[in-house]
Amino acid sequence: MAAAEMRRPPIRVGAGGGWARRTAVLALSMAILGGLPGCANFWAERVISQRFQADPVLAPLGLEVTADAGEVFVAGAVPSDWLRERAVRLAGRGPGVVAAYFVELDRADRPLTFDRFRAEPARVWGATIAAVSANGWRLQDEAAGRSLTTAWRRVQGTWVSLGVGTQARLALQLHPRGESVTVIATVERLDAADLTWCLGQEQRLVRAIGENLANGGAAGRP
User: Domain 5-111: which CATH class?
Assistant: First the structure.
C-alpha cells in the first residue's frame, strides 16, 4: 500500500434496507471472485454492515465499515465504551477478518487515512512521536506505543471557512500485527468546515512517519 493512503468513503450503515434480498447474489459473486483481494474486502464490508444493520443497538448509530487486507476499521461516534467494544467484537467476526479497530469520528462518512509499516513497534512509535513534534503538534494524552491525542492548536482559516481561524487536533492509533504496525490518523477542526485540509494533515503526518523510519534504518512495507 502506498504511504498514507486515503481510503474511499466506506459503506454507509443504517441507510436503507434490502440486505436480505442481496445476500444470495453476493454469496454467489464471492464464490466466483473470492480469490481477489478487492472482492474479499467488499464481502467483509457487506457482511459486517449487514450485521450492524440487524443489531438493534448499533443500527441507529450510522457506523461506517472499511475492510483492507484482513483489517476492519469501524468509524463513527458512540456514547459508551460498551457500544464501542460491541461494534469491534461484531466486526471481528466478519469473513476473513484478523483484526478490527474503532475510529472515533463525528463525521463517520469521511475517508480514513492509514498505512502499515514493517518495523518494530517501538521504532514506529518513536517515528510517530518525532513526526508529531516536527509538524507542530503538542502531545496532550498518550498510551505509549498504542495511541496519542494532541492539544487543540490554532490554525488559519481556509476559503471554506471564509478565512476565519479555528482550532484543530490530531489523534493517532497504532496497532501492531505480526511484523507490521497499522497507523490510523485523524484530524478534526472545531469549525468542521474543511475536510480536505484535515485529510491533507493526516496524510502529511503518516508520510512523515514513513520518512522517519526510512531515515532511521531499513523499514519495509508489508
Answer: alpha beta
Identical fold for domains 5-111 and 114-216, yes or no, is no
How many C-beta atoms lie closer than 10 Å to residue 149's C-beta? 17
Determine the distance from the C-alpha atom of residue 221 to the mean position of all C-alpha atoms in its chain, rounded to a whole number.
18
Contact of 194 with 161, CB cutoff 8 Å: yes
Q: Contact at 8 Å (CB) between 172 and 103?
A: no
Read off the pTM.
0.81
| Calpha distance 53→46 (Å, rounded) | 10
Which has the closest alpha carbon to 188: 199, 203, 176, 204?
199
Which stretch of 21-25, 119-123, 132-136 has the lowest confidence by average pLDDT? 21-25
**Longest Cα separation, the chain:** 53
The answer to whether the Cα torsion of 192, 68, 64, 138 is positive or negative is negative
CATH number of 114-216: 3.30.310.80
Instruction: For 137-150, write each residue's pLDDT tens digit.
Output: 999 999 999 999 99
Annotated domain spans of the chain = 5-111, 114-216
